[in-house]
Amino acid sequence: MPSHYKVKEYCPLVFRNLRERFDIDDHDYMNSLTNKQPVEIDSPGRSGARMFMSHDKKYFIKSLVTEEVEQMHHILKQYHQYIVEVHAHTLLPHYLGMYRITVNDVEHYLIIMRNVFSPRLTIHKKYDLKGSTVDRHASDKEKSKDLPTYKDNDFIRDEAVLFLGKDTKDKLMTTITKDAEFLASLHLMDYSLIVGIHDCDKAEMESAEMVQRAKEGEEDSNEEENGYDDDQNGMGGVPTPPDSPQLIQAPFNGDIDNTIERFAMKCSDGNDLITLCDFNILSNIVSFRNCQWKKCLSL
């Protein structure tokens, strides 16, 4: 630990109320952030901010610059009021806490957000959509990642279609319209709609492969215990069994849990789960005084 550090929580009562409205228990929240070291991940934006994920994959931790802290203070009252008005039914990021950590007289600013994606489901494809085709394609460097973030032109090239069904589509478009109108009222723009796709068929195949590998590992372990492992040299040594996987959440049984898959919805064809969220509205803020704009997404 550093020799000297301080932690300041900004607007604790407001963020506590936001956590309540987003159905987040304060005890679980603190355990997620403090029980183990967060893991640093690639930042999806170009702001240079550092991004971390809590060990249980429930929360994002994002570094802020002082201008972003000021902007968050500026919009927090309206953001809280909007969350109350829509009963927390929104695709906007769920902001849960903002902190200043001072280490050896150096200040660091952090904001906590709910993870857009479910901690228990694999995302097989991801898009960052802005409703524009200008310079909107994933770079070769991005495509080389294990889970690249594709963009609008990639979405069009893939001929991607989201089969949501009429009722789900109507609810989604109502939510997006309200969110967009709220952001426009604050003169905020340059945000994205993040789309994550969980392929149920592919996930089933991956699960079967994992079970098969586990069986093979168990057979290898049994052989070692029966004296067939050359490294034991007949000395009767007992090998250490592999660590058992620890489930962070209950296994997915096909039903969406609103406390875990907060941004998820089922496709009407039953083959995919879609996660949607208006993302990155804080790190790409531009103020307009005499400009009106509208953003549309066709599904």
Automatic annotation (TrEMBL):
Region Disordered, residue ranges: 207-251
EC number: 2.7.1.68
Keyword ATP-binding: yes
Enzyme class: transferase
SUPFAM superfamilies, sorted: SAICAR synthase-like (SSF56104)
Protein name per the record: 1-phosphatidylinositol-4-phosphate 5-kinase
PROSITE patterns: PIPK
Organism for this UniProt entry: Mytilus galloprovincialis (Mediterranean mussel)
PANTHER family linked: PHOSPHATIDYLINOSITOL 5-PHOSPHATE 4-KINASE, ISOFORM A, PHOSPHATIDYLINOSITOL-4-PHOSPHATE 5-KINASE
Any one of the GO CC terms: plasma membrane
GO molecular function: 1-phosphatidylinositol-4-phosphate 5-kinase activity; 1-phosphatidylinositol-5-phosphate 4-kinase activity; ATP binding
Domain PIPK: 1-299
Keywords, alphabetical: ATP-binding, Kinase, Nucleotide-binding, Transferase
GO biological process, alphabetically ordered: phosphatidylinositol phosphate biosynthetic process
Bias-annotated ranges (Acidic residues): 217-232
Gene3D superfamilies associated with the record: 2-Layer Sandwich (3.30.810.10), Phosphatidylinositol Phosphate Kinase II Beta (3.30.800.10)
Pfam families listed in its UniProt record: PIP5K
Keyword Nucleotide-binding recorded: yes
